[in-house]
Structure formats: C-alpha cells, structure tokens
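Section 5.1 Outputs to date
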Amino acid sequence: MEDTRLGTILLEGGIVDEAGLERCLAIQSLTGHVRPLGEILVEQGLLDAATVERLLQLQRERSTLQRSTTPTTDLGSSALFTAALANRAEEMVVSEGRPVRIRAGATWTQLTEEVLRGPEVWDFVRETMGSQVLEILAERHFVVQPWHLPGLGRGLATAFRQFDGVAVRVTFAAETALEPHAIGVPDAVTNAVRASKGLVLLVGERGIGRSDTLAALTRVAATDPGHYVVVVDDEPWPLPTGGALVVRRRHGATAEQRADALRSVVRDDPDAIVCGDVGCAATFEVALRAAEGGRLVVAWIDAPSVARALTRILDFYPVHDLVRARSSLAAVLRAVLVRHQLPDADHAGTVVASELLLVDDAARDLLRSGELSDLVLLLRGDGGRSGHSLDRSMLELLRAGKVRLEDVFVRVEEKAWLLERTRNMAGAAAPAKE
C-alpha cells in the first residue's frame, strides 16, 4: 500500500532531500504541528506554491485510491459499512457471486476484491435486516425495510433473489437534514417552499440526491410551528424536530397503493405534503388537486430535465383532458428544480449542476398552451428571470474550475454553444472526438 504522507512523496520523487525535509518537520514540530508542511516548504524556499499544490493533489489521489477497497480478510457487515461510509457511498450492493460495489455520486466502484459467497451474504442480510429476513425472502422474492445500525448510520435495505442467489441493496440516509444551500438548492426554490402554497417539483435521475433534497426542503416547510406537515415516502431520511408537527406515512410499493396513501393524507388536511414519488398518473393527479386546494406540495419525479419532467406529466392525461391539466398545472406550479451530480475537477467527489424553472407569467402562458419547446428556449435565455438551463449551470461550474470539460461535454445538449464559450478559457482542452 502506498504511503500517502507528503514527506514520503517528496523523498520518493527526489523533490526535497532528507536534510531539508527534516528541517521543515522540525519547524512544524516547534509550532505544535499547527502550520501545514507545505506552507513551511514554500517559506524555506524549497518549493514554490504551485508545486506544493500539485503534490497535495497527488496526496489526495493516493488517499482516494487507498479508500477504494477494503481488506478481503474482513467481509463482516461492520467492516463493509465502515468502508462504504469512508468512500462517501450513497448506495451499496452485496451479492452472492460478485464483489461488493458502491455508488458515490454518479459513479459505481468496486469496494472489495474478493467475490462473496453465500454464507457471507446471508450473514450480512441477517445482521442488517434481522434474523427472519431470509425465511421471508424464500416466500416473497424481495423484502424492503429500513435499517439502522448504531454508529454506522441508517437507510433503506432491499433484499432480493437473483440467479446467483441472494443480494441486498442498501441506501444510506443522512443522520440530520442539511441546509438547502449546502446541497446546491437555489434560494428561489427555498423561497417558493417557504411561501407555503402551490406545487414545487423536484426532478432528477433516480437515486441521485433525492433523499437529501427532500429532507432539506421538508426542513424549510416545517419552520412554522403552527403547521402540520405530512411526509409520504418509504425512505427513512431524517425528519426535522421543532417547528411544525411532522409525521411520516408509508407510500407503498405499487401505483395503486401510492395513490391511496396520498388520498388518505389529503383527507387529513395538512398544511404541507412532501411526496417522494409522483411518477404515475393517479399519484400526480392527487398531488395536483391537493395543491389546487391551497396546500404546499413538494414532490419528486424521475426525469433528466425540466422539459422531460413536464412532458412526462402531461403524458399522464388523455387528449380530451389535456387543456384542463395544462391550465391546472400552470395555476399551481411554482418551481421545477432538476439536480445532477457531476464528478468534480479532482474526481475525488461530486458537484451539483442544476436546471431551474421559476413559473412567472411568461412560463405560465407557455404551460397553458403546451409549448414546452418554447419553455426550453426561455430557460436558455441570458436574463435568468424564469430560471436557467442545465447547460448554463455546467458552464458556470466549468468557468469556476469545479469540473472538467470532458465530463461536462458528454452531458451538455448544446455542444457547439459550450465549445464557443470555452474556446478562450484557460486550461480548457477540447474533448476527444466521439
């Protein structure tokens, strides 16, 4: 295993001699190890600041590579959870006949080198989900339930049968809800939720920051102590304490169960409803009617963009009902936020790119007429009054040096537009031809 200490990297590369390094380490020791070694190296004239920064980047890359696997001699549940959390995993799959894999951001990586055998997977399932899960699994083919291991975290576990045997998918939930700005939610969306009326749609690809976004905006919706907020979702993300009365209701596994659950919640007459999925016609219609009744509804739907989300919603309705559906949607929709996670410039983490529609008079007219292509043009404009496009968000991240051009180029819709605006950007290299 490679040594990740900066001093070792300096000596390995012959960048600084041993005497010079020992002198800098002695100075660092005299200051109580408060001052960074890199700062002392620059002060002593052994390296310049740019070289130190490159060496620190190498140190971070080595640390990331070391965290990418866990020793194959310890495949117990505690060791796997600890290694997954060290790699900032949002999802882990433990399966017979395969190595353990985790997803951090949008990237899947291998956590273990060794292929797991049946007994190892069975022990993991029992320790995570309870001793009776395998017996239930033999009858029902899959089992879904929350998990919580003290000191390791909480989330949702789905055990299922596959051709090679048993597998389990584990998602990780934060222990506490984050502030919206900390996960890249624009202030305009937070203000729309704080207004406590209308429909706010959260959009993204499944599993990419859904729970974090819902938890953060539930925290905003629950700030008024006089309100009653109902969360309809099966994922065990944290609910806010203090402020409004907040309760969680199970959503259900089928479209019919989800629509029934949401109808039951509306009958309870809450001030705000947070729904983890409105991806079917019946569920969305209940959410739309609830917003028309003067409530706040914050809901998630799987889609890659504003236009695709709205197209999916309007496809729920037959042709004879489209005029009514478009009019209702235009009347209650306040904002649509799309979030994507991109690898950061160091490929050591992720950053959020977003697309935002703020429903003003111009957007409302286009929604009523069903001109979604014109709505896309509205987002691509330079004014920003109605929001911004995903392409523009990625361009701003690129200009700030937070992402690489090659990672943005494969996702951007207007590739020529992006290349034109990055032509004179320092350090931006043209991507390879597809």
